[in-house]
Write the structure tokens for this entry.
Amino acid sequence: MEPVESQTESEVAAQENQSDHAAHSVPAPPERRERRKQPRTWETPPSPVPPPRLDDYQSIVGAADIEELRFLARELKGKTVKMVNSTAVGGGVAEMLNQLVPLLNELEVNTHWEVITGGNDFFEVTKAFHNALQGSDYKLTQNARDIFLMYNEQNRQRVQFSEDVVVIHDPQPAALIRARSDSSRRWVWRCHIDLSNPNAEVWNFLQPFIEQYDAAIFSSPSFARQLAVPQYLFYPCIDPLSEKNKDLEDSFVQQVCDEFGIDRSRPIVTQVSRFDRAKDPVGVVQAFKQARKYVDCQLVLAGGGASDDPEGAAVLKQVKDAAGEDADIIILDLPPWCAREINALQRASTIIVQKSIREGFGLTVTEALWKGKPTIAGAVGGIPNQVIHKLTGVLVHSVDGCAYQMRYLLTHPDFAKQLGENGREHVKENFLMTTNVRRWLLLIRILLTGGAK
Amino acid sequence: MTSAATTILATPASVKPFYFNTSAHLLRITRQKSSTLAEFLDALRECPDGSIFQHAFRTLQEHHFIREGFSNDFAHWALSACNEPSLAEGLASVDVREFTSVAQLRERFVQIVEGFLQRSPAAATRIARETFYFCASDSVVIPTSFVAHNLREFAEGLRGISVHSIHHHFIEARLRIKLMSNDFSQWLHEDLGLTETARQLNRIDIYTRTLEDVREQLVRVVERALA
């Protein structure tokens, strides 16, 4: 987690408005407050579920869309693809590959997933590269270069690259391009991070490798660099069948709300995100307090990251301080395996907020839109790709703006409903796993057959 | 049985079947981007044809679920990022159905922005709230399982195809066939001789309806011809 250097707008306002919550807070009944202090969640992760098959998506996206995928894959039958990344578990890339690889194989595009190996020294260097490429200060040393290249070379010697298309994910294995021996094979670099403002030393070191690929893929046009190779846009995606996003029985949603002391008979405003300054949870508390002067509502801040991260713990404390004794602000520090509970909280919400002041793509926004929820989001990172202002949600730039939109959406349910419906369709069209499969099939086809017009 | 009724229900040997296709698009990020209207005008002149196609035609497919308030990416940016409602109105009024080539369409957008900046020169260098990134589409045409030999099968096809296929035949088509028409109307007119039905389909407004609404309208017109 990276610190935000300057004091956020909400932190300034927090100092100015310390007495504000006391004037407007409404204590909840004692028994409810007691329950909120010790919410019951599973203490261990649930067992993994097998990845979905293509037909499982048919009821969601329609038979015609699935048929299109099968037609698109027909010309690629028997082609081989290798996906290479640096971790088999944890993180968004591994999660995405866990679902994408079986789906491509089901379509008879033979796809193999290879995870590179390296020592702690390698992963320390690549973590530093990762942060530096997203703008952190970093001094690139010769030792770091040597470690990076040495482990890439070890992996180059260990792994065979005989597939028709090789896809290298993120910077860690980028130098594997040196394994390219046959010009008929296609190599693609899939960059999942924001390169809009990279550390110049690290980027200048990596760029010559990247420009040997046949194409590069970015998650947003604003994350891309000027490169000598074609650059494609692959938005990140969510899986509508995952625990986080699948439909839930209303009884389970009710059970989760009961467990956490959330009153479904009153409006619920929710932000789901790590306790991280970049997500401005304190700003959300302030916006909520402003909005509640005019409209009754509860605020749920559900996230994690506070138990294993000192910075997260500090932010959580700030949030609790800002909330004070307000019984309508429900703060939940959940373990990472509570995906189904998060899903239930999102579904129980009247409005979902993601008031980030710095963001990657913002998949929590995607999740909210998919659930048809009217969404208020900070206009940063990849969020404007998802939230088209006043069409699929509303974009805000300040605490005041966020507070106004909370009031407006809570008092204009028809407009809010329309935003929610549009938001869900926007996700269905652009940000679902099936769309991701379609993009990969298209790219492979274009690279191998020149099949674009 | 009259010849029209034969066409509707049976398959005369001379009738060419209608093969429903669809197109899939992959977005490419181009070199053009603009943070001011002056840069936007330059980029409009220089960007690849695929960018004009993407931001005026394809965007209707990407946002097919929006019934009102969305016309094309250029108009949306002029309003939301540049806060220039009159320019946005001008850009939004461009109806892609009036153009049979990307060059004509590009020229129209350029004229509108040029005209606006002549009237409001101070707006040229004002920094927009968000940068506009010009993208372009690489497209692949793919078949579907639907084929129509007569009007009844045509209606079944319209009900079963994806909205991508509707966009391909009904909206993108005019760039391909270089006519102020669409694939559906062309087949109805040229192969089935149903000129009035063809004309009615071509009059369906794509800017005030979602693509699902357009599908319903298409089916309704065809069902009327079947009745």
